[in-house]
Amino acid sequence: SGTAGVDVSTVQEVTLLDSQVQCVPTNAKGPLGKGLSALLLGQLSTSQQGVFVLPGVIDADYQVIIHITVWTPNPPVQIPEGEKIGQLVPFQSLVPKATNRLRGTGGFGSTGSPQIYLAMDIKNSKPQCKVLLTWKDESTCKLTMLVDTEADVTII
User: What does the pLDDT look like over 114-154, one tens digit per residue?
Assistant: First the structure.
């Protein structure tokens, strides 16, 4: 009693060799049951050890093994098999007019094509970048963006 969520743990040992985001398989699999969705959050003890779990939403119709996205600013870091690094906080979605959709079994992005079209590393400068976005109907949009969000990577 009093527990906000269900712990999830790693199913294999993982070593974070750099500060790139990595997906780690867990012992949890969707669907969660009873029409529940869940917030996937990190354990406080995990971040105290220098491993940060990026939060996510697990939809009620998610069909495959749940992965946790993690990163560390101070590699290398080893995460042992069976380590409880995250928790699922269940909730009942109250989105009006939500539609049922057929999900694939590919995990991330299984409901459609990826939406990330440009990713670039930036260093200490604050450069501008000219970007041309092209849609399926071949219409385009040109824009100039500042490539700095006080993060190491900017994604459009």
Answer: 555 556 665 656 667 788 888 888 888 888 877 655 555 55
d(CA 50, CA 71): 9
Rounded to whole angstroms, how far apart are CA atoms 151 and 128?
15
- Catalytic residue status for 152: no
Q: Which residues contact 39 (CB under 8 A, 6 or more apart)?
A: 5, 55, 56, 57, 58, 88, 89, 91
Domain ranges of the chain: 6-92, 119-155
Which of 59, 137, 148, 152 is an active site residue?
Answer: 148
CATH architecture, domain defined by 6-92 = Distorted Sandwich (2.70)
116 contacts 42 by C-beta, under 8 angstroms = no
Asked whether the beta carbons of 85 and 43 are under 8 A apart, the reply is yes
* Mean pLDDT across the chain: 82
